[in-house]
Amino acid sequence: MATKIRLQRHGRKRYAFYPIVVADSRAPRDGRFIERIGSYNPNTNPATISLDFDRALYWVETGAIPTDTVRSILSKEGVMLMKHLRGGVKKGAFTAEEADRRFNAWKAEHNKAVDAVKAKDAAKAAEEAKARFEAEAEKNRLKGESVAKKKAEKLAAEEAAAKAALEAETAEAAAEPAAE
Questions:
Q1: How far apart, in whole angstroms, are the C-alpha atoms of residue 57 and residue 162?
Q2: Which of 33, 59, 101, 165 is the most exposed place for a label (fewest CB within 10 A)?
Q3: Can you give the pTM of this predicted structure?
Q4: 79-91 and 53-61 are packed helices; what angle lies between their axes, rounded to 10 degrees?
Q5: Is 89 exposed, middle or buried (0-12, 13-18, 19+ CB in 10 A)?
Q6: How far lies 107's CA from each of 6, 79, 104, 121, 166, in Å?
Q7: Quick one: 82 exposed, middle or buried, by C-beta within 10 A (0-12, 13-18, 19+)?
Q8: For 131, how many CA atoms within 13 A lie in the half-sphere containing its CB?
């Protein structure tokens, strides 16, 4: 029986997530499977991958053939590297301790690179938020200036009207005694 490690499609339209399963190659894509070894959610940024490392390594070593997408997921998680290193131990090229040291060094470097990308994305998002805030502050300042200008014009117009009314009253008051 040929086994494959592949993705099953779940979720709704345009929002799929994928369980990673080991299945008979003749079984339907979303049908019967032997074991579920993880999940892959491409809807998050970065994509969320949860994987049972030991079971994935077991199935890869026993001859299960991963699909292209699953192969890249397994490579990113280090399963394919560990399979390669264990093959070197079986051939006697190096010891198991050396294989573990190489894998841990790769994992540390990989995690550092992933953290750097996440930090870069976070810094970019913070910079964009700061730029949006500054643009909004500038917009509010300009709007405040235009409102203050309109209020000043309205107050000047009211003062001019009050002054004209006062002059009219004084002129009227001066005209009344002269008429008597």
A1: 90
A2: 165
A3: 0.71
A4: 50
A5: middle
A6: 24, 11, 5, 21, 87
A7: buried
A8: 6
